From TrEMBL:
The chain crosses the membrane at residues 36-56, 68-95. This is AzlD domain-containing protein. Keywords: Membrane, Transmembrane, Transmembrane helix. InterPro entries: Brnchd-chn_aa_trnsp_AzlD (IPR008407). It comes from Aquibacillus rhizosphaerae.
Amino acid sequence: MILIIILGMSLVTMIPRFMPAYIVDNVHFPDWVNRWLNAIPYAALGALIFPGILTVKPDQPYVGLTGGLIAILLAVLRLNIILVVIGAIATVFFLTTIL
């Protein structure tokens, strides 16, 4: 009985995950929709990161904002993602130890 419940729960979990992938593969969207869909991961990442930037030091939000701006600058310069992350961490570390 437990095995049937586990199989049923796995199907209930898998079906909603596979259906959108199957539908998106078979539907051809206009170019503007594809551009919009391609922007969603970046918007979601920004929404996840920005609150953390503001709360690095809650009493001094400019520390996190400065680290975020440095990360943006390094990313615009097309540096490797590891260097972007290290640059942002080093900036926040430097500002928190100095201030």
